[in-house]
Amino acid sequence: MTMATGERLLTIMPAWNESASIANVIKEIQREVPDTDILVVDDNSDDDTVEVARSAGARVLHLPYHLGVGGARRLGYRYARDHRYHVAVQMDSDGQHDPRYIPDMVTMLATTDLVIGARFAGEGRYKVRGPRQWAMRMLSAALSKIARSRLTDTTSGYRACGRELIEYYARNYPVEYLGDTVDTIVQARRAGYTIGQVAVAMRPRQGGTPSNSPLKAMIYLFRAFFALALALVRR
Amino acid sequence: MRLVIVTATTGLVMLLVIFELLRRRQLREKYGALWLVVAVGVLPLAIFPTLLDGLSSSLGIASGLSLFLFLAVVFLLLVTVHLSWECSRLEEETRDLSEEIAMLRSDFEELRQRTELGQTPDTADLREEAKTA
After folding, report:
1. Cα separation of A154 and A139, whole Å?
2. Residue of B nearest to A76 (CA)
3. Considering A17, A65, A138, B41, which has the largest number of Cβ atoms within 10 A of its Cβ?
């Protein structure tokens, strides 16, 4: 780990009914990145995610009602701000994100304010097909232009940022669907932060099913561009 | 004449309902006042439907009733937009509160565990946290 100057690192994981996978994910992070604190933001799960995560050794914040992934992430950033963490890494709690990349991402923070762990950037075998893939490509192309940096996976929930962006996101992390991925990039760029990416291999998620119906993909595309258009005109 | 009875009764009932809701403190004053003003404004029209005819003909609208319906739709549209806005704000406020609760709950849990273990809380740490919060 390249956290030379005693910088404090927090890994934020929003979780909603993830009791099947979360203990393994926490254990893996502890093994790969021993000097990070782990915060699980439980988005009011119906199962025992809270207990499982807590006994696995994570700090757990338990939301009183379901906010959605964006809401849970903002709380994570607030926690990072209030407890004076220097670096925050956000990742998913379903085991898709491999914590081995955290050191790479944190190292890149020396030159970039926001680092995205990106699929489709050469590493790994993760594939998305059909309309959903086109939607993601178009979105990435548009956002790469805006961010003035090549971004291949703008919907990735695997990200790292430093103190300034932690404070920024603690105030302005959108709760809307897709706002948490699209809007956050546009906002960071418009606030003058630089954005880059690190290639990561993603694993198939350990629980849950990805949606593949063309109709859902169309809706996804539509919502993605609506979110993008809103992000661009937002004050 | 029968039409006037129907409209006038409707107007009066609306006025009474709002007044009663206000009296029981079920309605915030700002909304109550708005609807009272509307009710009082509309009541004369309910009794004398031809009241708007002069204004409507000067605007090129065939009958006072058309003008009235048009204004009513615009007004209701504005009210619903306002309510959507108000609802978004409320959601943002409850979101803030829920985040606050989650943090307090976790802090409280930690304190409770420390006390149960017989440890004195690390007051320096807590004070630091209070300062930055």
Report:
1. 7
2. B99
3. A17
State whether residue B87 is helix, strand or coil. helix
Question: Rounded to a whole number, what is the distance in Å from the CA of A168 to chain B's nearest CA?
Answer: 15
Domain boundaries, chain A: 9-233
CB contact B130 to A (< 8 Å): no
- Amino acid sitting at position A99: P
**Looking at the complex, does the CB of residue B129 fall below 8 Å from at least one CB of chain A?**
yes
Nearest CA of chain A to the CA of B30: how many Å? Answer: 28
Burial of B13 (0-12, 13-18, 19+ CB in 10 A): exposed
Superfamily of domain A9-233: Spore Coat Polysaccharide Biosynthesis Protein SpsA; Chain A (3.90.550.10)
Q: How many inter-chain contacts (A to B, CB under 8 Å) are there?
A: 37
- Report the distance separating Cα A49 and Cα A19, nearest Å: 4
Alpha-carbon span A70 to A179, nearest angstrom: 7
What does residue B80 show for φ and ψ, rounded to 5 degrees?
-70, -40
Encoded tokens for B40 = 């009082």
Distance CA(B92)–CA(A71), nearest Å, equals 10
Q: What is the pLDDT along chain A (235 residues), one digit of tens a residue?
A: 445 556 899 999 999 999 989 999 999 999 999 999 999 999 999 999 999 999 999 999 999 999 888 889 999 999 999 999 999 999 999 888 999 999 999 999 999 999 999 876 555 555 566 677 777 788 888 889 888 888 888 888 899 999 999 999 998 888 777 777 788 888 888 889 999 999 988 777 655 455 557 777 778 778 878 888 888 887 6
Query: Chain A interface, mutation test: which of B98, B126, B128, most A Cβ atoms within 10 Å?
Result: B98
Residue A182 gets which letter from DSSP?
I
Residue B121, Ramachandran bin (φ over 0: left; ψ between -120 and 50: alpha; else beta):
beta
ipTM of this complex: 0.79
Which of A185, A193, A194 minimizes the C-alpha distance to A234? A185
Of B99, B105, B129, the CB nearest to A78: B99
Q: Does A62 touch chain B (CB under 8 A)?
A: yes
